[in-house]
């Protein structure tokens, strides 16, 4: 007979720093409620679009030093803190947000960020995030098809600057295959218009070419590449002892929103054996609009293209695609050894194509926006923002004192009011919190600059901006 032993209950030990699930649920509920109120009042335009509280004052208001030093936040105190934090943010959903090329994100991409924040699957190595990596593969296949690279390859990076750098690495690998191991030849050059995004010059410096390796192309009065004078630019580089490794065109230019003539530029590059790079960070999304995709005619001639989802695809920052016509060109950009990462079958790993090792689930953010809105819905968003910008141009040129140097091709419009200091007008608007816009130089002259990117921006907003600008001078 088995003795009847009295059993002592086992002690259940809980690791000290595991999640408190109840706290998480309460804090998540507070987050959703706080963000819902924030977006609602932002879209309604009920609050200032921007606040400019000095950092010292803001740090005190948010209790940052105390929280860092003491900790102890609870769901209740978090709710209060979040409200103060959101009140000080720049409201991209606001109809008067007309500034930088950063999306008023749609909620599906925000959900993706929330999910990634909890599960933390850095998916550049497939085994660290198979679902996220697979979502990125499918998003890239979709983007490659839209650009016209059926045999191409790609990767998503944390922003357009990294995307341009990655594309320039691929161009360098094509021009100087031994550069990764032997160093950069001193004669390489990049041909680009002066209006090219600053990340092109930055990439040249990072790659060891130096800023002077960026040879400026001739442009028209609005900064677009002068196709007829491309031979002069190429000759100028070669006479300086330079070997151009890439030519960069804009689709569209950051400052003006104007598109370069992609097809004739691509034909010139093909004729002269130049790597053709199209910076489509902002404007490649027009591929989704039947009305505007003609602006990108010839993009399929490129060797590399970048396309930012966090601009016109309503995706939360950051998610930028690097797309190449020949998949092997991207694989050649990096040549790395790391026994703890690079081993076995690398067929599903993206780490060999990016600067980043720990890479967020960027493709999931784009995928969920597509899954909710569809390709057609995102195309309608692009077309509507372009149309609203064109409406602003129409309204502005009808008013005395306003001058617009060009008819907009995208959702970016530059304008001046009178002959006064345009920067001073912008500063007043920012101090008021009434409108958030930027400025840019065209032909050496400072202009105010509007980027229509929030779905809430309408004719009422545009008229109010024109009224306010006119009243300030």
UniProtKB/TrEMBL annotation:
Gene3D superfamilies: 3.90.1150.170, Type I PLP-dependent aspartate aminotransferase-like (Major domain). Its cofactor is pyridoxal 5'-phosphate. Signal peptide: none annotated. It comes from the Bacteria. The keyword Lyase applies. It holds the Pfam family Pyridoxal_deC. Keywords: Decarboxylase, Lyase, Pyridoxal phosphate. The keyword Signal does not apply. Belongs to the group II decarboxylase family. This is Pyridoxal-dependent decarboxylase.
């Amino acid at each position: 007979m088995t003795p009847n032993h009295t059993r002592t209950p086992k002690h259940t030990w809980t690791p000290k720093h595991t999640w408190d699930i109840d706290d998480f649920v309460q804090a998540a509920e507070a987050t959703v409620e706080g963000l819902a109120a924030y977006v609602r009042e932002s879209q309604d335009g009920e609050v200032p679009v921007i606040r400019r509280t000095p950092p010292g004052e803001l740090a005190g208001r948010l209790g940052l030093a105390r929280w860092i030093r003491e900790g102890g936040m609870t769901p209740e105190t978090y709710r209060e803190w979040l409200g103060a934090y959101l009140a000080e943010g720049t409201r991209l959903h606001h109809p008067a947000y007309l500034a930088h090329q950063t999306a008023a994100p749609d909620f599906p991409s925000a959900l993706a960020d929330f999910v990634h924040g909890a599960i933390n699957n850095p998916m550049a190595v497939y085994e660290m995030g198979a679902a996220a990596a697979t979502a990125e593969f499918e998003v890239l296949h979709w983007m490659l098809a839209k650009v016209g690279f059926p045999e191409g390859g790609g990767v998503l990076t944390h922003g357009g600057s990294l995307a341009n750098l990655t594309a320039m690495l691929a161009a360098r690998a094509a021009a100087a295959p031994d550069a990764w191991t032997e160093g950069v030849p001193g004669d390489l050059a990049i041909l680009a218009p002066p209006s090219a995004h600053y990340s092109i010059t930055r990439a040249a410096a990072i790659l060891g070419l130096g800023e002077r390796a960026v040879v400026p192309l001739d442009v028209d009065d609005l900064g677009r590449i002068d196709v007829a004078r491309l031979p002069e630019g190429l000759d100028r580089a070669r006479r300086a002892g330079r070997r151009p490794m890439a030519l960069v065109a804009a689709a569209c230019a950051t400052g003006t929103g104007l598109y370069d003539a992609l097809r004739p530029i691509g034909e010139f590059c093909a004729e002269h054996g130049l790597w053709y790079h199209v910076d489509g960070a902002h404007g490649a999304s027009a591929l989704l609009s039947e009305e505007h995709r003609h602006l990108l005619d010839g993009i399929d001639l490129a060797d590399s293209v970048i396309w930012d989802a966090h601009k016109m695809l309503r995706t939360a920052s950051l998610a930028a695609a690097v797309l190449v016509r020949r998949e092997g060109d991207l694989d050649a950009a990096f040549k790395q050894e790391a026994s703890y990462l690079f081993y076995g079958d690398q067929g599903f790993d993206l780490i060999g194509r990016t600067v980043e090792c720990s890479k967020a689930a960027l493709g999931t953010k784009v995928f969920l926006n597509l899954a909710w809105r569809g390709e057609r819905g995102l195309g309608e968003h692009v077309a509507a923002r372009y149309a609203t910008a064109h409406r602003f141009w129409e309204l502005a040129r009808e008013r005395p004192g306003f001058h617009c140097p060009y008819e907009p091709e995208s959702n970016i419009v530059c304008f001046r009011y009178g002959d006064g200091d345009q920067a001073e007008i912008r500063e007043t608007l920012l101090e008021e919190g009434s409108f958030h816009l930027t400025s840019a130089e065209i032909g050496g002259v400072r202009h105010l600059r509007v980027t229509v990117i929030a779905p809430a921006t309408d004719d009422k907003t545009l008229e109010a901006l024109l009224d306010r600008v006119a009243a300030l001078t």
